[in-house]
Specification:
By secondary structure, the chain is α/β, with parallel strands linked by helices. The chain has a single domain, classed as Metal-dependent hydrolases (TIM Barrel), CATH 3.20.20. The protein has eight helices and eight strands. The strands form two sheets. A five-stranded parallel β-sheet has the order 4-5-6-7-8. Strand 7, helix 6 and strand 8 form a beta-alpha-beta unit. Helix 1 crosses helix 2 and helix 7 crosses helix 8. The longest helix has 18 residues. The two termini are 30 Å apart.
Length: 265
């Protein structure tokens, strides 16, 4: 299956994710068993966490990769960070850019509870700086509760990342409803776990993948779990939605024109 996870707090002891090396190993073991072969570890790029130190994150990534090799777990770890989508990000990307892999894509989360009325302007200004935003879990952020806001972000050049747990209600009924609507409208470019802990991971991640396949079909699930994230990891434009969702889930939104979303060179 060769799934690729672009949002995962696998590196232990540096943010609110894995607490120990044993946690990291168990999380990796679960992901591998479910079909993942690549993880772009995404520690928080925020000053309240030790993970704000990029050098520390890279050292820990090397340590965890060595531990996985020692344990015989075939999971390749890649560079990444979860940035904050706010006005300060425009300055941080000038000299402290922490992209997904080595490409133009930057994983960034909008505030969960606060509004972000300047969102279109932020996305535009990031694109001008050569950064293509990959917006983390919009279904969990208040700004994207506004009708049409997610589609507007995609038209503005951003890509959206689904937290697959939202599909089974892991983050509450509102996030579940939005996730299913955005999925039906073909707005997501990738699906990711946002895994923080090994606790119950095999069950909820497995159930979430199964729900994604049931809602969107096998081909669309593969686009979101493998082809889209693999492209972004390479710095390439991810493929668009493969077609409408099953009739029981389909929405009325058409596919967004590809050139509106392409990364700037």
């Amino acid at each position: 299956m060769d799934y690729v996870d672009l949002h995962c707090h696998l590196l232990w002891g540096i943010d609110d994710g894995a607490k120990s090396e044993a946690d990291s190993i168990e999380m990796a073991r679960v992901l591998h068993a479910l079909g993942y072969r690549h993880v772009a570890c995404s520690p928080h790029a925020r000053p309240e966490f030790a993970s704000d130190d990029e050098a520390l994150c890279e050292a820990r990534r090397a340590e965890v990769q060595a531990a996985l090799q020692r344990e015989g777990i075939d999971l390749t770890l890649h560079k990444n960070a979860e940035n904050v989508l706010d006005a300060e990000l425009l300055e941080r990307v000038v000299d402290r850019r922490r992209p997904v892999g080595q490409g133009p894509f930057l994983l960034a989360e909008a505030p969960h509870l606060a509004p972000l009325p300047q969102l279109p302007d932020l996305l535009f200004r990031l694109k001008v700086k050569g950064v293509t935003p990959l917006v983390a879990h919009p279904e969990r952020c208040r700004e994207f509760e506004k009708p049409g806001r997610a589609a507007e972000a995609v038209r503005g050049g951003a890509y959206l990342q689904l937290d697959i747990g939202a599909l089974i209600g892991r983050y509450g009924p509102s996030a579940k409803k939005l996730a299913r609507a955005f999925l039906a409208d073909g707005l997501y470019a990738v699906a990711a776990t946002d895994l923080h802990s090994p606790r119950d991971a095999a069950k909820w991640v497995g159930d979430s993948i199964a729900e994604l396949k049931a809602l969107a079909g096998e081909a669309e699930a593969l686009r979101l779990l493998r082809d889209g994230p693999a492209a972004i990891l390479r710095g390439a434009v991810p493929p668009e939605a493969t077609g409408p969702a099953p009739a029981s889930q389909a929405g009325g939104m058409g596919r967004v024109v590809a050139w509106l979303k392409r990364p700037f060179s």
